[in-house]
Design goal:
There is one protein chain. This protein has one domain. The protein contains 6 helices and no strands.
């Protein structure tokens, strides 16, 4: 994929996530579309485009919504690098692989963010509060990943047919 196309997709998802989804979802948990895109683009295309775009949008996300710059960018980098390493061992891009990767990525993002805020910033955010949000986040992220998986898989199949 071209970098411009990837960034347009990421910016669109950033706007959707932080304008519509954050207001519409009950319980304050909404799908993390940037994380989902980082997982899918890195898994499907095996390049650094997903990681680079995730880090750049993560920095922008931290500028807009976080008291500390770099937490989201670092989490997206860790997730993208992990998916890139797993991609070499998993040749299949099935729904089960997507479920496992999305679940692990959600736990890494929430756990890493909590550890960073709790221990580096000395904020008093309870672990149970974070753990209670993770199951909902996994369901929402996996649902979003399946929609994106269908879109990217179809576009990749059409590209293969042309070649």
């Amino acid at each position: 994929m071209k970098y411009v196309k990837v960034f347009i997709i990421y910016i669109t998802c950033f706007l959707i996530e932080h304008t519509f989804l954050s207001r519409m979802m009950p319980g304050g948990v909404s799908p993390d579309l940037i994380m989902v895109l980082t997982v899918i683009i890195t898994l499907f295309y095996g390049t650094y485009e997903g990681i680079v775009a995730g880090v750049v949008i993560g920095i922008f996300q931290d500028i807009c919504f976080s008291p500390v710059l770099g937490i989201s960018a670092f989490m997206y980098f860790i997730i993208g690098a992990g998916v890139l390493m797993v991609r070499d061992t998993v040749a299949d891009d099935s729904r089960m692989v997507m479920l496992v990767l999305t679940t692990v990525a959600t736990v890494i993002y929430y756990g890493g963010s909590w550890c960073t805020v709790r221990f580096l910033l000395a904020e008093n955010i309870g672990l149970l509060y974070v753990l209670a949000r993770i199951p909902w986040a996994i369901v929402l992220n996996f649902t979003s990943a399946m929609v994106a998986w269908l879109f990217f898989r179809d576009s990749r199949e059409k590209k293969r047919q042309v070649i």
